[in-house]
Design brief:
This protein has 210 residues and is of the alpha/beta class. It contains two helices and 23 strands.
């Protein structure tokens, strides 16, 4: 049985720990080893039954270790994943028992799916995508390292690029395109295509310079 290490000890990392525990209750898949984080004090103010083992930047993966990516920021997620991959790390997909994947999908490696999340029929989801308690509609496409926060509705045939961050309670209507590195603010209703790198907010969502 492989030992699993959670990359990042923030709130998201601690939620990921709970999901791994939930998976192990259904099927004993991993020995939980703990966290790695460049902030060695990240758990000091929280109750937690696992410790930070060392820094991400200094960790050398062993053959019996696998990793779960507990980072939500798409740019940081890509940087850290690529750094560990260059040291021969292997990432697991963490799919909660109460998450659902419909038929005929293509789903990449290293994804995280929270309870209540769903990927619809014939959807394509890239590597290292984080899907909180939200739904991705039929025939949608989501690029690598994108994060979709809680209570979002990604409608059918939506195309989302790489490293996109979609905040909570957003809706994207069918067939719209979201470019790489875009940011969708909380509660936004997206009725138009969003250009790469744009930050949009509101109902209807409009570009805002921050």
């Amino acid at each position: 049985m492989k030992e699993i290490i959670i990359v990042g000890a923030s709130g998201f990392g601690r939620e990921l720990l709970q999901m791994i525990k939930d998976i192990n209750k259904v099927e004993s898949k991993w020995i939980i080893k703990g966290f790695i984080d460049d902030d060695l004090t990240a758990l000091e103010n929280y109750e937690c039954d696992y410790k930070i083992l060392g820094k991400i930047s200094e960790w050398q993966p062993s053959e019996n270790e696998v990793f779960a990516l507990g980072i939500a920021n798409p740019v940081t997620k890509e940087k850290i994943a690529n750094s560990l991959l260059s040291r021969n790390a292997v990432f697991e997909s963490i799919i909660h028992p109460r998450a659902f994947i419909d038929s005929f999908n293509k789903v990449g490696i290293g994804i995280v799916m929270y309870p209540g999340s769903r990927i619809g029929v014939n959807a394509v989801v890239g590597d290292y995508v984080t899907l909180l308690s939200s739904g991705i509609g039929h025939d949608a496409c989501v690029g690598d390292f994108t994060t979709i926060s809680s209570y979002c509705g990604i409608s059918g045939k939506v195309k989302i690029g790489k490293k996109v961050f979609i905040s909570s309670h957003c809706v994207i209507i069918p067939s719209k395109k979201i470019g790489d590195n875009a940011f969708i603010g909380a509660g936004s209703i997206v009725i138009n295509n969003v250009k790469p790198g744009a930050k949009v907010f509101g109902n209807p969502a409009k570009k805002i310079d921050l």
